[in-house]
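REVIEWER CHECKLIST
Item 1: Sequence provided? yes
Item 2: Single chain? yes
Item 3: Sequence as submitted:
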Amino acid sequence: MKKLIPLIVFIIIAVFLFLSLNSNPSKLPSPLLGKMFPSIQGKDFYTDETIAVSNLLANNMTLVNVWASWCTTCRKEHQMIMNIAKNTNLQMIGIDYKDTRENGAKYLEIMGNPFDEIIFDPTGKIGMDLGVYATPETFLVNEEGVILYKHIGEIDQNVWEEKFAIHLKSIES
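Item 4: Structure as written out by the authors:
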């Protein structure tokens, strides 16, 4: 029996690690879904003025995209974010997460700026308030400020059509 105990412990640990490695963080439910967007304040990326994000959300269907210049997945998704900004009536708010203004500005200069407003979050406090643990993360917020959907990772055409556009059909009709 003494020889069997280490084998059982090993099997339990192996199963736990296998399940952990195969989990998909983009499928984790957000505790913010269906709730009001958190009441947060941040600094405007360009003017450094304090902005209450909830004031930006009032009466606007909004896409809030948490991004950073150092994030390779953000670079990969950026053209899609540009297309969304061109082809929808959504307000676009960007949150530049754990970045420098210089690098963020250079990124936007090269890649283009799809955002109506950008909040600067150099320390990640706003991201922490939103439950961000990976960039990019994107929130779809309705006119009342309620979070309809949260996506972790890159938005591509399929994700847009299957996860976001379904929420927009009622306002575009």
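Item 5: Key structural point noted by reviewer: The chain is about 40% helix and 20% strand.
Item 6: Recommendation: ____
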